[in-house]
Amino acid sequence: MVNNLIEEAEKVLFKTYKRYQIILDKGEGVYLYDINGKKYLDFSAGIGVYALGYANIKFNNALKQQIDKLLHTSNYYYNLPSINAAKKITKVSGMDRVFFTNSGTEAVEGAIKLARRYYYDKYNIANSEIISMNSSFHGRSMGALSVTGTKKYREPFEPLIGGVKFANFNDIESVKSLINKKTAAIILEPIQGEGGIYPADKDFINEVKKICVESDILLIFDEIQCGMGRTGEYFAYQYYNVKPDVLTVAKALGCGVPVGAFLASEKVAGYLVPGDHGTTYGGNPFVTEAVNKVIEIYEEDEILKKVKEVSGYLFEKLEEVKSKHDIIVDHRGIGLMQGLEFSIPVGPIINKAIENGLILIAAGTNVIRFLPPLIIKKEEIDDMINILIKSLK
Ligand SMILES: *Cc1c(COP(=O)(O)O)cnc(C)c1O
Question: What is the CATH number of domain 58-300?
Answer without folding.
Answer: 3.40.640.10
